Amino acid sequence: MVAIISFVGKHNSGKTTLLTGIIRRLEQRGIKTAVIKHAHKGLDLPGNFDSDQLFSAGASIVYASSPEFSLIYRKNQEEWSIEQIYAQIAGDVDLVITEGFKGKDFPKIEVLRQEISTSTLKITNVLARVTDFPLEDSVPTFTFDQQEEITAFILEYLRMN
Fold first, then answer.
1. Which domains does the chain show, CATH number per domain?
2. β-pairing verdict for 61-65 and 70-74
């Protein structure tokens, strides 16, 4: 089974920015990653690409392929579960990272920004926290500048080092 870890936090807490640096470091170490991001309010297409326009025109599925990467746009009758998405992608990667999915029991790293909230979420299975303010905690706490240390922490926890 491919390892999975979640980054959770309130809106605008810095999850995506933090993950960008962590994913770069994981990939540099040869760890192939997949990210599943939960969008509570739906997704907007930029509309600037042919594939966006074809999908917006009503195509149920648009599969755009190039030598560098592929994109799949698919209309859902209902939102896919994290388990359904995981089953489709886990065979192609070493690590699945989710952004969001606070209610799932995956191991989690909580991200907090002082300007958003200094209160931790009422969630289970928190391995560590990343903050921009001092926080007394029972789990390891990192700053946003400690991406190398966070990456090492993840790899050690998942026994991937």
1. 3-40+81-157 (3.40.50.300)
2. antiparallel
